[in-house]
Amino acid sequence: MAPIAQAVTVSLQDLQNGTVASETLYEAFGPDSLGILVVKDVPPQFAGLRNHVLSYSSYLGNLPVSELNKLENEKAKYLTGWSRGKETLKNGQVDTLKGSFYANCAFYVDPALSCAAPTEQFNTDNFPEYLSPNIWPDEVTLPGFKESFEDLCRLIIDTAVLVARACDRFAETEIAGYPGGYLERVVKTSTTTKARLLHYFPEDPTNQPAPVAMSDAAANTNDPDEDDWCATHLDHGCLTGLTSAMFVDESRAGSNPLVASPEIEPKDQPSSSAKGSNSHLIPLDELDASPDPAAGLYIKSRTGQTVHVRIPRDCIAFQTGEALERITGGKFKAVPHFVRGARAALSEGRIARNTLAVFTQPNLGEEVDMEQHITFGEFARGIVAKNTVS
């Protein structure tokens, strides 16, 4: 089993005060780092929002196929709305082990926006992946989902702005010609930031075996090919904000517990059963930990070692992406990482893994490679084409 690595941790207060040392940032994001920074002491509302949104991931993943089909956007290569089995993993394998819901976070800049505005170079015809409006489940199907999702994303992006500010202070002293306040401006003003709510479906040992059978010998090594749930990859944005994963036993309420008539309670009125615009689905019971200790996030360190990284439940983690590596001339390296779900052989019940990733990304016309004058839109288009089922 891969060793557990301790990520560099800073407090939100230190980020706000600008007192995070350059050495700390270099330890978190530099060439010899894990490329991940954990922020503790986040606002108190984070815990409730995380619990609600990650519960919605199971509710969403268990909707009837007819409802999920309404949330698909093939033209946008599934980078808005719901998808499952539309992404290719290693060796061209189609990924059916997880489902995901993508949403543009342009609402962070302007609540009236559902996606970035088209430009002369990028428009809805030639780049719908980033210029298609969000597709939300209706309020009857998943009441409160859109509101909770947006609120949690805003909180994560607010924190990302502070991390970006700290990165700028470091880069301004270490990188010749680095424009002051560049990354903070990019994160704060981007209308192309995307969020991805992920639902790793429970593994069914009788009907849905894991695609990669792991031997006892492999289980006790740092085999880099153990990425059977989400192939090793780099995020292509700047900073990726991550919640810790929620593990849920979806068998506790029956054979199909989350679909039929989900129980609804109005926000802040737990004893009522009325429905309305302030209604929210009841959060699901979260397991104290994964029944499979090997489940979770894995990072391939700069030395080539595969390590298991655990994010505390009350913290937000930030990983570096390829755009940031390009922007900083390689001073901050993008993080190769993958995810493993809970193996059915080690779990009782039907264990799902839910998490949220927020990819803070430059606007489409923003240069991310200042030597080759490559814009983020040009860079992202190639990545999207490579990762989607044709």
Automatic annotation (TrEMBL):
<feature type="region of interest" description="Disordered">
    <location>
        <begin position="255"/>
        <end position="288"/>
    </location>
</feature>
<feature type="compositionally biased region" description="Polar residues">
    <location>
        <begin position="269"/>
        <end position="280"/>
    </location>
</feature>
<dbReference type="InterPro" id="IPR027443">
    <property type="entry name" value="IPNS-like_sf"/>
</dbReference>
<feature type="region of interest" description="Disordered">
    <location>
        <begin position="205"/>
        <end position="224"/>
    </location>
</feature>
<protein>
    <recommendedName>
        <fullName>Clavaminate synthase-like protein</fullName>
    </recommendedName>
</protein>
